[in-house]
Amino acid sequence: MIQFKSSKTIRKPLAEVFSYWSNPDNIPRWQGGVVSYRRDGDASAPVGVGTRYVVVRKALGMQQETRGEYTAFESGRRIVEQVTAGPASYTVETTFTDLGAQTRVDVDTRLELGGMMGRLGEKVAARPVKKQAADDHNRICALIEQG
Question: What residue numbers bound the domain in which 12 lies?
């Protein structure tokens, strides 16, 4: 398993940070390599537990479809996403802490590679996956702060 955490403080109030971060329709704006995106199901339904999405992205030189679903959603506090990408599955838990005019965002990512990739693939993939996640988190934080 590949596991890593990040923590960022964003110079915006909690409601604004949570609103942007929790909306899967914003994924193409901040996640690198996105080729296409769509909500799976009723795109007009409110975001919450059960919200699903499909993202096609280029990663590690390959085009790959990922499917995500919000498995926990506590407004203004916490989101948990379960994502599958071929033989890989990962869980991303994001928690939000109100600091008044600022918001701390903590992200805990756990990635498991199945099939032939297994532990060897984890050793190879760990560094680029962590770098991509760090780049994406920096990008979303900057977008939110720019308003």
Answer: 2-146
Task: Please report how the helices 14-21 and 118-146 are oriented relative to each other, as an axis angle in degrees rounded to 10.
Answer: 130
| Helices within the chain (DSSP H only) | 14-21, 27-30, 118-146
Confidence of residue 119 (pLDDT cuts 50, 70, 90): low
Q: Per-residue pLDDT tens for 42-61?
A: 888 999 999 999 999 887 67
Which runs of E-coded beta strand occur in 13-129?
Answer: 34-40, 52-59, 62-74, 78-85, 88-98, 103-113
* pTM (two decimals): 0.88
The enclosing domain of 102 has a CATH number of 3.30.530.20
